[in-house]
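Lay summary. Proteins are chains of building blocks that fold into shapes, and those shapes determine what they do. In this project we predict the shape from the chain. Here is one chain we studied, written as its sequence of building blocks.
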Amino acid sequence: MLVVLHTTPDAPRDLRARAATLAGALLEMAGAAALGAGLALALYTLDSGQARDRFERICRAQGGLRTPPRAACVQAFDNRKLARLAKLAGTPERPVARLHLEIRPGDEVARGQPLFSLHAQTRGGGGGAGVCARLCAPGRRHRPDW
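And here is the predicted shape, written in a compact code that computers can read:
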């Protein structure tokens, strides 16, 4: 969308056309353009840079245009800690107990993406109910799945 606002030559034509068509219809509905003149006004607003200037003012009023956070890359695992977690879950004695890695070293992970699932079997309760929890990348708390 920013490439359309900045009127760069490599901006997708279909996106520009769709944005201008919608903006033109809104200008006509709001009474800012005569019926049938909305598209021309929208294209003029885009081409003159007025739309970009207005967008940037709105962004500044809301704290500025920010770069989205980049994904982090998994460098390595601490196998001793993972083995300890699996042992605490009950492996290998309990049939349902396991630790399932959702990612591998070298994978990029986004905020809140599950890193691993830990399955454990509760003690007591006739059927031995299973419990599962996931540890997610920073930004989301542990997420129980039961």
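What the prediction tells us: Confidence is low (pLDDT under 50) at residues 125-129, 140-146.
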